[in-house]
Design goal:
Blueprint lengths: L14 H12 L4 H10 L9 H13 L3 E5 L8 E5 L1 H11 L11 H7 L8 H26 L4 H35 L1
Antiparallel strand pairs: 1-2
Length: 187
């Protein structure tokens, strides 16, 4: 943090506020635009739903960290939000603070963890499904990289996603071969 900066409760209340502050750090946006960008970018590692975004926009505005202005379009209500100076300070403080959250939720790993509770026969199928999911994500990320739309820091995060999914595919293949070999020896 910088001298004089205060780190309010925003970061402690959850990542959705930080996602919003970060997106608005680029430019003013509507809630719909924020959700659309989340779905094409941070969703791969930090999702946010409309049910999280809109209440958080109202809270951040009430806290004086963002300001909204009505800009109806085509007969539809539409609010465009931007960072206030306090919001920019909050974003800076969060970016310079130690990361608090790391959570990996992977149902395939959860199923593999419990595969032995029944008979272990589901393990190979679980690994193949997990491998296929990571392979599909890898193809999607490589296509994004080929489009050249992600550069700078977003490009670094995209590269992380590619390398992470490459590793996951290789890991699933290796473990499936190991399990297949051990099951043959046991038979």
């Amino acid at each position: 943090m910088y001298p004089g900066d205060t780190f309010t409760a925003v970061a402690l209340q959850g990542g959705t506020a930080n996602v919003i502050l970060g997106m608005l750090g680029w430019r003013p946006m509507t809630g719909y635009e924020i959700k659309s960008i989340v779905d094409r970018s941070t969703r791969l590692f930090w999702a946010a739903s409309y049910g999280q975004i809109y209440p958080e926009l109202r809270r951040l505005e009430a806290d004086g960290l963002i300001s909204g202005r009505s800009e109806p379009q085509g007969g539809r209500k539409r609010n465009v939000y931007g960072l206030t100076p306090a919001g920019r300070r909050e974003l800076r403080a969060w970016l310079h603070s130690e990361s608090q959250a790391f959570e990996l939720r992977d149902e395939g790993l959860l199923k593999l963890f419990f595969a032995g509770t029944i008979d272990g026969e589901s393990a190979i199928d679980t690994l193949e499904a997990k491998r296929a999911k990571h392979q599909a994500m890898l193809e999607k990320l490589r296509a994004m990289e080929a489009e050249g739309k992600s550069s700078g820091y977003a490009g670094l995060v995209l590269r992380h996603g590619i390398e992470f999914n490459e590793w996951q595919v290789r890991w699933c293949e290796r473990v499936a071969r190991e399990l297949d070999g051990s099951e043959r020896k046991a038979a």
